[in-house]
Amino acid sequence: MAKRDKWVSDDGQNELLEIMDHTVQREIVEGVKSSPFYGIIADGTADVNGDEQFTFCVR
Asked: For residue 44, what are the contacts with CB-CB under 8 A and spacing of at least 6?
């Protein structure tokens, strides 16, 4: 990389992630709405720091 090249700012990265998040959510919701059946799998566990990690899957 040349010296003039810059990484995207934190705000720019967060905005891009938010756009991607909304796009994925919209596609999931559209898929669920168009399907006559779907299943939900959810699981949670605490990590070594005591923080809850939650997984949610729609099939």
From this structure: 52, 53, 54, 55
